[in-house]
Amino acid sequence: MKYAYYPGCSLHSTGIEYDMSSQLVAGKLGVELKEIPDWNCCGASAGHTTNHLLGLALPARNLAIAEKEGLDVMAPCASCYNRMKTSEVAVKSSEETKAKVAEVTEMEYEGKVGVKSALEVFVKEAGLDAIKSLAVKNLGGMKIAAYYGCLLVRPVGIGFDDPENPMTMDDMVTALGGEAVDWPFKTECCGASLPTAREMVGLKLVYDILTMAQSAGAEAIVTACPLCFMNLDMRQNDLNKKVDNANFQLPVFYFTELMAIAFGEKPAKTGVRKHFVDTSSVLAKYNLK
Amino acid sequence: MQPINLTSALAAGKDFVEKVRKASGVDVKACYQCGKCSAGCPVAFAMDYTPRQVMRLLQLGLTEEALKSHSIWLCAQCETCSARCPRQLEPAKVMEALRIEAKKAGFETEDEIATFNEKFLRSVASNGRVFEAGLVIGFNLATVRPFKDAGVAPSMLVNGKLKLLPHKIKGRDAVRRMFEKAEKMEGEHK
Amino acid sequence: MRRTGVFVCHCGSNIAGTVDVERVAKEAAKFPNVVFATDYKYMCSEPGQQVIKDAIKEHNLDRVVVASCSPRMHEPTFRRCLESAGMNPYLFEMANIREHCSWVHPDKEKGTIKSIDLVRKAAAKVVKDEPLQKSSIGITKRALVIGGGIAGIQVALDIADAGFPVTIVEKEPTIGGRMAQIDKTFPTLDCSACILTPKMVDASQHPNIEILSYSEVEKVEGYVGNFDITIRKKARSVDMSKCTGCGTCWEKCPTKVDSEFDMQLGKRKAIYTPFPQAVPNKPVIDRVNCTKFRTGKCGICQKVCPTGAVDYEQQDELITEKYGAIVVATGFNQFDHSVYGEYGYGKYPDVITGLHFERLINASGPTMGKIKRPSDHKIPETVVFIKCVGSRDEAKGKSYCSRTCCMYTAKHATLVHEKIPGSKSYIFYMDVRTPGKGYEEFYKRTAEEYEAQYIRGRVSKVYQKGDKLVVRGEDSLIGRPVEIEADMVVLANAMVAREDAGDLARTLGISYDKDNFFTEAHPKLRPVETHTAGVFLAGACQGPKDIPDSVAQAGAAASKAIGLLSKTQMESDAIVSNVDESRCSGCMICKGICPYKAIDAKLITERVGGKMAERQVAAVNKSLCQGCGACTVACRAGCLNLLGFTNEQILAEVEAVCL
User: Fold this and answer.
1) pLDDT tens, C116-141?
2) Helix/strand/coil (H, E, C) string of C260-279?
3) Do C334-496 and C135-234+316-331+519-569 fall under one CATH topology?
4) CB < 8 Å to B126, chain A
5) Per-residue model confidence as pLDDT tens digits over C317-341
6) Domain with residues A135-285, CATH architecture
7) Angle at Cα C151 formed by Cα C147 and Cα C154, nearest 5°?
8) B79: which chain A residues are within 8 Å (Cβ-Cβ)?
9) What is the ipTM of this complex?
10) Cα–Cα distance, C69 to B177 (Å, whole number)
């Protein structure tokens, strides 16, 4: 398997752990990732809410470059994935849109290649059997809430998993010996950039998700999106300061970090030491250090 | 509270509703006002009009009120409303279309969100990618909170999560041209 | 030279608004054999028909063309008009310039040209028309009712009271249907069983009614007045003639199974009657779950049966009977809400449906009438009702309104208030629809006196939080999101067609709509008939209905069936198949094709080369033939022709339009 890799802006900065661990997992699974040369930002989510055409064109430029190389794109960030998917579907379903997008990007994108999320490539396509056979460590029953966020399973009808109760990440957690807790906020929105732009509105969403995960008995959250990750991981400290009685210390992982660790990688190499919320104690508890 | 003159409002709003339909693919007339969108909306609690009410404003031709609502800026574009709408309408796309129109009309009722988006896109337009440190610092300066989020900066620098200089892609001129062309093709902003 | 008259109808402005009717008449007057043409405001009206009759006399017409609506609408009207003017009613053609022209073509010029063409076509055909005669046939004076719910029972009682024998075929082990599962009925709150069971008993004791429970219609042949119905009597494993219904077998049966009747909330045995008042009150063995059938061991019921009625060897039995009329009353199913991910995909035990609630509140139900939630048997204090689950939802369910949910939800909330002191009900609704006698008053009482809090809005999400269910909605009247922590959630699931409705429709040859409800012949004027003569509809198999409507419709269907069965002879249409014996080779391919068994071989004697010889040809029984035309296309020699639609007549039409 070979994919054009679209890390997106986050994976080169705040989501660096996702990049590190994705590369490790890809190596183990035999998925070849070739970074899209000179890729640009997909614009999410300011782009499409400022200028509809720009919102389609920014991802299309990257898709066009990938198409030249004849490779489908893997986009680990849920937001990038959602924008690219929207652009892919728009170009495929309307000749008029295709022509407009080509005019703006000055590149031809025919819709011959499409985009997949990292979860789709590393779990759905690789298969649970392959994941199990590569695992040398067991998550030992760690109680984990799989948090997909909103955009990974939308728009409805073109996503790869159920929009209300997705299971791809839960299945992965179970395959690696963890306990995927059943909880109802798998696809609730974390607010994306709202905690930055309108802090108290955004923080409420993060607070609700963390509280629900905790009350479901989760010892950790696993996610597949750098924006979700940043909100859930970095904002815990904010919440503890700003909200009465809040005292969150809930480790948040990228699903690729847990996979890489289970595949025998040293935790430090996967990026788990870079998190805001300490991950070492929960990893130590399950002998995953 | 002034009564709404529906006769004139409906007539005046007709063209705009058609514009929204073209831009979003959503025929707001088909909305039967059940409120499922607003019930599931994660941000509805902070909105001045719930997503259902935004649809209603358009149904009644109250264009300006819709464009001046805070809701269209607070919308996180999570698409929960679109996923659950029993009429298979997509309120999230209406929100998107309204925000674009509001910007054109100069109604940016949520300064901070508008500023954030603008700084974000300016960063993309000049570098081809987002320069997060520059974005956050620029945003916080613009919103007169220079030290917000500053506490996390040192650890992020150490962890390689924050770059001090933007990465400029080779094709940044092409990206800038995309901005210009898209703006021209979709109509000038005020 | 024929003398044809052409009459163009305005249909008020229905036709005249978009077709230049005067021009159509003027053009028609120029067609070959047309000696008179005119237009009139309403051709079907009394004075309109008089115009035709006068013209027939005055112009000595021997052929008539009316250009108006669909023949489905008024062909019989105009045929009668011709008959009363002394003409053979089959020397007549209709040109449909309403449905085919004025209603579909906004362009007046084009619509007019097309209308002229359609009239030209009809005028060309009518000169080829020959006088035809109707024939008649006897009627089997017996009715079959499919489905033994309240609608089917009512139909059977009404027909039986009129003196005709009736058979009820019910696929479950007992009659009673959905109404038997219901606890109280709105708007009077009288006990459902108390008003239903006497009717069940009446049906079982009526000398004119035969009940075939645990049976299904397998095959339908024949036609109106003379249907041949094959019924499968499923193996009950109990000899009905020996069983006394004493109940020893199901008391002793060691195998417990989830009860379908109690919506899986309670248990029944493997040998069982669905509920105590079952009719017939004789058990069946559920062979899928019975230990004897699964493993060969057990056999307790046979040992304990005092009359030796248990018979493990019993086989399904197929019987074929003749009936004159069929009434379909197969009822409805409850919508399966497991497609609603936002309400938990059906996996939360305390999110139940309306029918579950009926069983929970029923004194002979699994909780003896105490409202206890399924998960932990706690009595719920806060109950949330969500309406329109699967109704008015084209994304996940059905586009239609299920009509009954507003009322049964109000009833449920009333019963919660009565049975659980200090409880609180919340009802999420989009609209409250109460268009029945006493319904609005009932709803008002629920809201005002029984403390049900109505909230206008569709619920977006229900999720489990500890032992509570959190319900998120919007109060759309104030425009704010609301959240309720409930102990139990009751969904008002839509009424949907039976999952096998399409199969039954194909067996019966009746039509059904996009939602699998059987289609009535006319939505306003023929609400209980189908397009298949002799087959009638009653109850919720035609669309969502409550009990009063089902019973009313059952009475209507019964009266239609009685009307049919009361005739001594039935006139059959003159448009039947006809054999040109001189060209028939006697291959009899047509015989196998005919769905009505109307074609048989016969021997004719003819002179061949000066000698008399016998030869086999096909012969059509004109009483049995329904004029479907299947044989005419199957005939290799083209010697079969449908009278009124002969090859010559059709070709005349084609030539008139195309040449």
Assistant:
1) 999 999 999 999 999 999 888 889 99
2) CCCCCCCEEECEECCCCCCC
3) yes
4) none
5) 999 999 999 999 999 999 999 999 9
6) 3-Layer(aba) Sandwich (3.40)
7) 110
8) 150-151, 154-155
9) 0.89
10) 63
